[in-house]
C-alpha cells in the first residue's frame, strides 16, 4: 500500500471485524429529535464543517490486497489474514446529508462509499457508521460536533467555551488513533493476571432472547437522571453496575426456575485509560462481571452492584487492558460464558443549545444489550433482548418503581428499521 | 436418573475434551508388541484384575446437567480380540470408555482423553502388562513395581483437577507471544486426502541419549525440541521462521494427584529460533528453551492458567508442534518381554518419547511427512553417535472400531 494515499490504518482486517459491517443490516446509528424541522442547508453546512475537523470521515475503505470480493474466498482470506484495512482519500462521489425516514447505509454509493452517513427527516437527524470506523463513544463525539455546529447556525448562538473541539487542520493521529493491536504492542506495560469468573460460572440467557426471524427488536425507557444518579450514589454503584444488578434481578424474576449465575460484559471505553481522550477511533474494551442467584435473593442491591463495580474496576486499568489484549493475541479469544452486555455511552451534550434536542435514540444490530445515554434530565435506556425485550422492559419498569424511580416506556418494543441504500420518503 | 446404586465418582464440569472424545475416531492408545502371541484367556483375567485395581475402567460416564459422573457399567468391559482397537464408549464394551484389545502379539489400551492423560493411561497399561506377562511367564516380582492394589476408594487414584480445588495461590501474568509472529510450518504435516493419520517410530539406547542431553544441559524434552528443529530446517532448507513447540507437562504434583490416572496435564509453549539453530550454539539454545518452559511451570502459573481456562477457552493462536515425554514403562523383571511400543492419537504434529527398559522409543505423528522426518531423526541421532533403529512405519494409524475385526 502506497503510504502517501493512506489517511489512516484501521489495523488488521480481522481485528476491524469489517465482515460484520459489510453485511450488517443495521449499522450503529444515533438519532436526535430536535424542536424544529431540520434545515437541510444548515445541516449540510454543519456536516461539511465536521468533515473538515475530522477529514477521516470523508475517506473510503481500501483493503490491502484488493476489493472486498477478493477476500470472499476462504482460502484467499486465510492466506491474507494479516492484511490491513486502510482509509484513503475518496476520489469521487460525495457524502452529503440525505433526506430519508430510515438511516442510509454507510459505505453505499449514495454517500460516495464513505463509511459514515447522515440522514434527516422532519425533526430528526441520524448519523450512522461502520463500527470499523468508530465506536459508540467516537460516534458520540462526531454526533455532538455536528449537532453543535448545526444548532449554532440555526440559533445564531455559539458557546464561549464549546464542549466540542472544532479545530481544523489537526493531524489524523491527533484525533484518530484506535486501540489497534499494533498500538497495544507498541506500549510499555507491566503484565498483570487476568480476572476470572468463579469455576462453573458461565451465565445464562433467556430461551426467548432470540430473534423473531431476522428482525431486530428494541424498546426504550426513560428514567430521570437526578433520581437515578442519587439512587446509584446511595448504593455506592456506578450507573452501569446498577443496571447490571437490576437486569439480574429482572432475569431471575422472569426465570424463576433458573439457578445459574448471570454474567455481564460491561463496555469500557479505554480512551482515558490509554490517554487517547480525543480519538474518535475504536477504543472499547469489555470487562466481565457476574452475580449469582443466591446473591440476588439474599443480598442488598448495593452489595450486589458494588461487587460488580469493583470487579469491573479491576479490569479498567491500563496494565490490565494491555495484558488482556496481549494474552488474547497468544490465545484465541473464546469466552466460556454467555453474557449480556451493558453499555453506558455517556451524555449527549452540545452545550447551551442542548435544550433544542428533545429526544435521542440509537439503532444497532444487537441481541443481548442494554445501552444507556444521558440527554438533558433523562437517561434513555435502549434494550435489545430479541423476543424477550418486552417482558424485560416491563420488569425493569416494575423494579424502578419499587426503588422509587419513575420509568416511562418511551418507545414500546418495535423492530429496528434496516439501513437503506436509497432515500425512503 | 435413579442409578445411585451404581454411582462411582463425580468427574466435574463437562468440557470440550469430552465432546471431542465423542467424535474422535482415534482415541489415545497405547500398544505393545510382546515376544509371544497373546493368550486370550490370560489376557481376559489380567484385564479383569486391572479393572479391580482401577474400577473406573468398568464405568460409564453420564452427563447430568453440566456435570459428568462415573457409574458402574451395566455389562462387562472385556478385553476384545480384534485387529482394530475397540472404540471406547462402544456397545461391545458396555459403553465403558477405557478398552483393551489384543491380536497376535499385540495388546492395546484405548481411552477417552477426558478420563486419562498419557501418564494415567501408562499406569493402567503397566498394570495390565504386569498381570498378563507375569501370569504367562510365571515370574512375579517381589515387591512389584506397578500398582496392583485392589479395592481402593475412587478418590485414591482418581482426582479431577477440573473440579476447581485450586487451594490458595497467587495469580500471575500469563506468558504471551510477540505481535503477529508467524512460526514455521511444514504443510506436509497434515492428514492425507482420506484424513488418515500416520505414525513411525525409532528406538535407541537410553543411556547414550542421556549422556548427549547432559553435554548441552538439555532435559529429554529440550533435546526433542532441538532434534525436531534440526530435522525441520534440514527438510525445509528455505524456511527461516522460528519454530514453536507446545510441551505437555504433568501437573500431578502441583495438584496433589500423584499416582492418579486422571487427566492432569498442563501445556507450556517455548520456541526454537532459526538463527540459533543455524549458529549451532546448542547449549545456549537449550538454556533459552528450558527457561521459557520453566517460566510457565510454577504452581502459581499452572493454577492461574487452570483458573482462567474456566472463563476463557485457552487455545493457542500460533502453529506449533507438540512434544510429549510420556515417561517409562518398567514393569520389573518382565519388561524384557515387551518388544515394541506405540502410542497413537489423531494428531498430525506430535513428537512422543517413551522409555521401555533401557531404551527410548521416539514416535512421530507428522501426517504425510512422517516418513521423511523419522529418517531424519534417525540420521541426526546416528550423527550424535547414538545408534537409532527403525521400529515401525511410517504407517497409517488404525482407526478405532465399534466391531470386533478378525
Largest beta-sheet characterization of chain A? 7 strands, mixed
Task: Estimate the global geometry of chain A from the Cα principal axes.
Answer: globular
Main β-sheet, spatial strand arrangement of chain A = 10-9-12-14-15-8-16
Classification by helices and strands of chain B? alpha+beta
Rg of chain A (C-alpha, Å): 21 Å
* Terminal-residue CA separation of chain B: 37 Å
Helix tally of chain A?
Answer: 14
First-to-last CA distance of chain A: 41 Å
- The mean pLDDT of chain A is 95
Strand content of chain A: 15-25%
Topology pattern of chain B, helix = H, strand = E: EHEHEEEEEHEHHEEHHHEEEEEHE
Descriptors for this entry?
heterodimer; A: 425 residues; Chloramphenicol Acetyltransferase; 2 domains; seven-stranded mixed β-sheet; B: 406 residues; alpha+beta; five-stranded mixed β-sheet; globular
Describe the protein in words.
The complex is a heterodimer of chains A (425) and B (406). With 425 residues, chain A is an alpha+beta fold. In chain A, 32% of the residues lie in helices and 24% in strands. Chain A is built from 14 helices and 16 strands. The radius of gyration of chain A is 21 Å and the shape is globular. The mean pLDDT of chain A is 95. Chain B is an alpha+beta fold and 406 residues long. Helix content of chain B is 27%, strand content 26%. Chain B is built from nine helices and 16 strands. In chain B, the strands form three sheets. A seven-stranded mixed β-sheet of chain B has the order 10-9-12-14-15-8-16, sandwiched between helices. A five-stranded mixed β-sheet of chain B has the order 5-6-7-2-13, with helices on one face. In chain B, strands 1-4-3 form a three-stranded antiparallel β-sheet, with no helix packed on it. In chain B, a hairpin with a 2-residue loop joins strand 14 (350-356) and strand 15. In chain B, helix 2 crosses helix 3 (118-137). The model of chain B has no long low-confidence stretch (mean pLDDT 93). The A-B interface holds A 12, 82, 181-182, 185, 191-202, 288, 323, 326-337 and B 13, 66, 163-164, 171-180, 182, 304, 307-318. Strand 11 (334-335) of chain A pairs antiparallel with strand 11 of chain B.
Amino acid at each position: 500500500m502506497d503510504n502517501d494515499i493512506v489517511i489512516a490504518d484501521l489495523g488488521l482486517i480481522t481485528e476491524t471485524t469489517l465482515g460484520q459491517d459489510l453485511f450488517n443490516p443495521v449499522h450503529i446509528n444515533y438519532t436526535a429529535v430536535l424542536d424544529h424541522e431540520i434545515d437541510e442547508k444548515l445541516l449540510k453546512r454543519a456536516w461539511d464543517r465536521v468533515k473538515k475537523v475530522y477529514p477521516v470521515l470523508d475517506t473510503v475503505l481500501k483493503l490491502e490486497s484488493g476489493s472486498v470480493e477478493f477476500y470472499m474466498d476462504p482460502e484467499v482470506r486465510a492466506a491474507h489474514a494479516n492484511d490491513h484495512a486502510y482509509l484513503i482519500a475518496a476520489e469521487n462521489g460525495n457524502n452529503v446529508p440525505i433526506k430519508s425516514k430510515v438511516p442510509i447505509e454507510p459505505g453505499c454509493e449514495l454517500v460516495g462509499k464513505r463509511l459514515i452517513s447522515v440522514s434527516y427527516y422532519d425533526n430528526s437527524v441520524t448519523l450512522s457508521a461502520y463500527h470499523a470506523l468508530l465506536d459508540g463513544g467516537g460516534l458520540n463525539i462526531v454526533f455532538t460536533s455536528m449537532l453543535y455546529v448545526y444548532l449554532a447556525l440555526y440559533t445564531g448562538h455559539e458557546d464561549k467555551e464549546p464542549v466540542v473541539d472544532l479545530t481544523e487542520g489537526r493531524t489524523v493521529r491527533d484525533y484518530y488513533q484506535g486501540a489497534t493491536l499494533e498500538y497495544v504492542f507498541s506500549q510499555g506495560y507491566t503484565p498483570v493476571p487476568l480476572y476470572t469468573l468463579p469455576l462453573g460460572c458461565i451465565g445464562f440467557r433467556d430461551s426467548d432472547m432470540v430473534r423473531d426471524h431476522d428482525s431486530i427488536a428494541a424498546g426504550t425507557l426513560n428514567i430521570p437522571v437526578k433520581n437515578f444518579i442519587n439512587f446509584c450514589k446511595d448504593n455506592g454503584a456506578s450507573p452501569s453496575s446498577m443496571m447490571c444488578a437490576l437486569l439480574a434481578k429482572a432475569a431471575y424474576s422472569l426465570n424463576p426456575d433458573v439457578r445459574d449465575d448471570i454474567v455481564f460484559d460491561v463496555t469500557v471505553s479505554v480512551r482515558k485509560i490509554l490517554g487517547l481522550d480525543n480519538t474518535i477511533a475504536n477504543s472499547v474494551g469489555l470487562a466481565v462481571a457476574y452475580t449469582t442467584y443466591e446473591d440476588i435473593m439474599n443480598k442488598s442491591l448495593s452489595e450486589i452492584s458494588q461487587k460488580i463495580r469493583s470487579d469491573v474496576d479491576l479490569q479498567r486499568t491500563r496494565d490490565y487492558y494491555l495484558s488482556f489484549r496481549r494474552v488474547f493475541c497468544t490465545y484465541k479469544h473464546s469466552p466460556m460464558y454467555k453474557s449480556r452486555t451493558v453499555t453506558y455511552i455517556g451524555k449527549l451534550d452540545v452545550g447551551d443549545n442542548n435544550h433544542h434536542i428533545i429526544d435521542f435514540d440509537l439503532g444497532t444490530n444487537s441481541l443481548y444489550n442494554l445501552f444507556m445515554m444521558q440527554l438533558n434530565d433523562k437517561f434513555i435506556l435502549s434494550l435489545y433482548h430479541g423476543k424477550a425485550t418486552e417482558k424485560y422492559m416491563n420488569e425493569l419498569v416494575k423494579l424502578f418503581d419499587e426503588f422509587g424511580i419513575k420509568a416511562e416506556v418511551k418507545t414500546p418494543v418495535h423492530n429496528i428499521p434496516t439501513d437503506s441504500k436509497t432515500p425512503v420518503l | 436418573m435413579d442409578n445411585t446404586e451404581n454411582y462411582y465418582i463425580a468427574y466435574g464440569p463437562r468440557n470440550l475434551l469430552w465432546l471431542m472424545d465423542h467424535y474422535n475416531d482415534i482415541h489415545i492408545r497405547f500398544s505393545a508388541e510382546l515376544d509371544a502371541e497373546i493368550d486370550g484367556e490370560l489376557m481376559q483375567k489380567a484385564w479383569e484384575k486391572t479393572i479391580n485395581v482401577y474400577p473406573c475402567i468398568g464405568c460409564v460416564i453420564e452427563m447430568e446437567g453440566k456435570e459428568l459422573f462415573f457409574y458402574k457399567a451395566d455389562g462387562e468391559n472385556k478385553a476384545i480380540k480384534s485387529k482394530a482397537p475397540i472404540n471406547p464408549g462402544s456397545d461391545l464394551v458396555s459403553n465403558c470408555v477405557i478398552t483393551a484389545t489384543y491380536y497376535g502379539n499385540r495388546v492395546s489400551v484405548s481411552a477417552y482423553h477426558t478420563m486419562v492423560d498419557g501418564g494415567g493411561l501408562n499406569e493402567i497399561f503397566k498394570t495390565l502388562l504386569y498381570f498378563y506377562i507375569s501370569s504367562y511367564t510365571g515370574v512375579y516380582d517381589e515387591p512389584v513395581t506397578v500398582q496392583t492394589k485392589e479395592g481402593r476408594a475412587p478418590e485414591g487414584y482418581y482426582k479431577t483437577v477440573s473440579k476447581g480445588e485450586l487451594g490458595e495461590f497467587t495469580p500471575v501474568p500469563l506468558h504471551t507471544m510477540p505481535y503477529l509472529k508467524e512460526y514455521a510450518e511444514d504443510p506436509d504435516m497434515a492428514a492425507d486426502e482420506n484424513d488418515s493419520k500416520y505414525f513411525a517410530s525409532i528406538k535407541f539406547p537410553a543411556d547414550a541419549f542421556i549422556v548427549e542431553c547432559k553435554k548441552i544441559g538439555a532435559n529429554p524434552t529440550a533435546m526433542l525440541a532441538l532434534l525436531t528443529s534440526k530435522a525441520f530446517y534440514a527438510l525445509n532448507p528455505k524456511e527461516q521462521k522460528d519454530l514453536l513447540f507446545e510441551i505437555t507437562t504433568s501437573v500431578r504434583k502441583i495438584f496433589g494427584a500423584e499416582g492418579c490416572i486422571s487427566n492432569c496435564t498442563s501445556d507450556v509453549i517455548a520456541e526454537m529460533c532459526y538463527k540459533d539453530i543455524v549458529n549451532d550454539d546448542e547449549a545456549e539454545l537449550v538454556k533459552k528453551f528450558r527457561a521459557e518452559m520453566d517460566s510457565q511451570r510454577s504452581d502459581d502459573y499452572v493454577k492461574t492458567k487452570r483458573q482462567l481456562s474456566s472463563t476463557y477457552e485457552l487455545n493457542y493462536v500460533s502453529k506449533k508442534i507438540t512434544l510429549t515425554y510420556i515417561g517409562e514403562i518398567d514393569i520389573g523383571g518382565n519388561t524384557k518381554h515387551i518388544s515394541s511400543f506405540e502410542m497413537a492419537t489423531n494428531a498430525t504434529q506430535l513428537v512422543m518419547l517413551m522409555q521401555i527398559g533401557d531404551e527410548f522409543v521416539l514416535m512421530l505423528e507428522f501426517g504425510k511427512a512422517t516418513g521423511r522426518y523419522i529418517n531424519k531423526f534417525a540420521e541426526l541421532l546416528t550423527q550424535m553417535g547414538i545408534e537409532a533403529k527403525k521400529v515401525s512405519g511410517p504407517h497409517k494409524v488404525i482407526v478405532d472400531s465399534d466391531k470386533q475385526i478378525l
